[in-house]
Here is the input.
Amino acid sequence: MGLAQQAREGGTAHMQKSSRSAQLTGLPGSAGSPASEARATPSLGAAWRMDAACRSLGDYLFFAPSDERQYERSRRERGAKEICATCRVLLPCRQYAIAGNETHGIWGGMSESERRRYRDSALR
Here is the structure.
């Protein structure tokens, strides 16, 4: 079973790492998926957040723990992006992360480095 499937089914490994990962990344709360983190910033619009596929999944797939190895990161990001690929609010989520200069996590199917490259290319 893949990480995305475990998260969808409420896998215990996902739930156990959720609060630890939020503490390690310095993000507020233990349910740190992009949709739940975005709820903390109401001024940027809230309509899309209620329909996000990640809304109740927590943060394990979407935010990296500080001690994560590269192969673990790649696997985790693939799982998060699988969920994003099925999400009907992928584009508003991506726009939120880019507009807000979000520097952590998978948002709208894009990693931190992908968003950084996108912003850098848009500035040229």
